[in-house]
Specification:
With 66 residues, this protein is mainly α. The protein has one domain (9-55). The chain contains 3 helices and no strands.
């Protein structure tokens, strides 16, 4: 996010492409594994990015019962 609270679209789109690339290669990947692969973000920022992607309908989630 920018200092005024708006989203930096260029950075968001690059991070979006990176996460989508991970998910396409590993469709049943867990959130924690995505966070580990996204070394350019801290875990809290990565979770926020994933939440934004879910709200924008870029990715969907399912509950995993183990």
């Amino acid at each position: 996010m920018n200092g005024d609270g708006t989203i930096n679209e260029l950075i968001y789109n690059r991070l979006l492409c990176r996460v989508l690339g991970i998910v396409v290669l590993h469709p049943w990947i867990l959130e924690g594994e995505i966070i580990n692969r996204m070394q350019c973000l801290n875990p809290q920022s990565c979770r926020q990015l994933l939440q934004m992607m879910i709200l924008d309908n870029h990715i969907t989630t399912e509950k995993c019962s183990r």
